[in-house]
# Entry
Amino acid sequence: MGANDPNQYLTFMLGGEVFALGILAVKEIIEYHSLTAIPMMPDCVRGVINLRGAVVPVMDLLARFGRPASEVTKRTCIVIVEVQSADQESQVIGVIVDAVNEVLDIAASDIEPAPDFGARIRTEFIQGMGKVKGKFVILLNADHVLSMDDLTQLAQTPAQAGALALN
# Structure
């Protein structure tokens, strides 16, 4: 792939900002419907849904970024994304977004590296900043931001701390 070959990204709104995920990771977009809450999960995992018989965890990206969750509106959707875990297994995860915008072609030459500051989210979550019509779109690194490996550690920490206190 050359530097000018465009890559396609699904853009969506989250907390008033425009974010994007590489289209190859996106499996489908479904209407938001009620989630089944699971105890002892980190705050950013809102629950699970039944997707054609498969149990899919659903993540609130704003909570993952340490921000308050958005209100659910009639435009709220769940984007179904397939990510690779650290051991190269693929996992399907739902992501709550405020609204899906469009699929954009962004050339590699129009992507700047992630800034070290200012985006209010961890830099390893950002693949880069895409320039679209004079504005920046935050391109998310799906494998990092949606990594369940991280989340499993987050979920276990309080329980392990409690177990240590009992000994």
